[in-house]
Structures are given as C-alpha cells and as structure tokens.
C-alpha cells in the first residue's frame, strides 16, 4: 500500500517539475517544519527580486487614510472574527488603533474600533453584558471613583 502512495507522490513531483517549472534543490530537511521555513524564505527572496517588500505598519496606516468606511468595517470584522479568536492581539491592536485614530469622532466605526480594543485589553470579560454597557460603567467608575452607589 505504501508503495502505491510513493509512486503517486513521485508522479506528482515529476509533473510539478516539468509543467510548473519547479526546480529541484539539494537541501535535506529533518521535518516538515524545516521544509516550510526554507520555502517561505525562498518565496520572500523571490519577491524581493521582483521589488516587492513586506509592507510596514506605517505604509499600512498611510493606505488606510484613503480607505472608505466599508474597508474599515471589513478590517474590524476580520479582526473580531479571525485575529482575536486566533490570539493575534498585537496586529489586531495596531489595525484597530489606526482605524480608531483615522475615523470620525462620533462614528459607529470609531465605537466599533474602541469595542475591539477593549476586547483585546480584557479578553476574558464576561459575555453576559453588552460591551458598550461595561465600557460606560468603567468610564463612570473613573469619574465617580466608586463601583457601587452608597445606599441611604
């Protein structure tokens, strides 16, 4: 059974080398992680050869200046649905902060970005209260200096 799969893979590799202009290399890898790392580095070097560089956060913020609200909403939804669940808080915070800073003062987008930043800062916040309610309560505590109202 193993030889059947081996022949299949060899045939696929031959096809890739002939049709897709892949090249053989003399590198040997102890595991798949090493192979993937090598291929990623080769890909980055190839892109550099074409003049393509990895965008910096400054370049990204500059591009965001010209984006419309739909783009902001799309990025914020992707942060909420993809980055936060995968615990990629660093990049999520950078993008949400940039969008918050670039959006209008009282816009829904600014509030959405603030909610996301709050969620990043406090990821274990109980979900039984709406986030805006918790944020308003926290802001009120900062003003009042107390958590519970004193009963008469």
What does this 3D model show about the protein?
The chain is elongated, with a radius of gyration of 25 Å. The longest helix has 18 residues, at 2-19. The chain is mainly alpha-helical and 152 residues long. The N and C termini lie far apart (82 Å). It is 66% helix and 0% strand. The chain is built from seven helices and no strands.
Termini separation comes to 82 Å
Q: What is the total number of structural domains?
A: 2
Q: List the helices and strands in order.
A: HHHHHHH
Average pLDDT, rounded to a whole number, is 78
Approximate helicity band: 55-70%
Key traits:
single chain; 152 residues; mainly alpha; 2 domains; 7 helices; elongated
Q: How is the topology of this model organized?
A:
Elements: H1 2-19, H2 32-49, H3 57-64, H4 69-83, H5 89-102, H6 108-121, H7 131-144
Characterize this entry briefly:
The chain is mainly α and 152 residues long. It has helices spanning 2-19, 32-49, 57-64, 69-83, 89-102, 108-121, 131-144.
């Amino acid at each position: 059974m193993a030889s059947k799969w081996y022949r299949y893979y060899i045939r696929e590799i031959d096809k890739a080398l002939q049709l897709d202009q892949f090249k053989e290399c003399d590198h040997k890898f102890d595991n798949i992680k090493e192979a993937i790392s090598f291929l990623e580095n080769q890909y980055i070097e190839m892109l550099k050869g074409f003049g393509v560089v990895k965008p910096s956060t400054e370049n990204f913020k500059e591009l965001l200046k010209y984006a419309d609200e739909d783009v902001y909403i799309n990025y914020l939804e992707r942060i909420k649905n993809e980055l936060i669940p995968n615990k990629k808080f660093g990049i999520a915070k950078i993008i949400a902060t940039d969008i918050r800073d670039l959006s209008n003062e009282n816009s829904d987008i600014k509030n959405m970005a603030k909610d996301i930043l709050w969620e990043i800062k406090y990821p274990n916040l109980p979900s039984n209260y709406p986030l805006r309610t918790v944020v308003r309560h926290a802001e009120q505590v900062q003003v009042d200096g107390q958590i519970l109202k004193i009963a008469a």
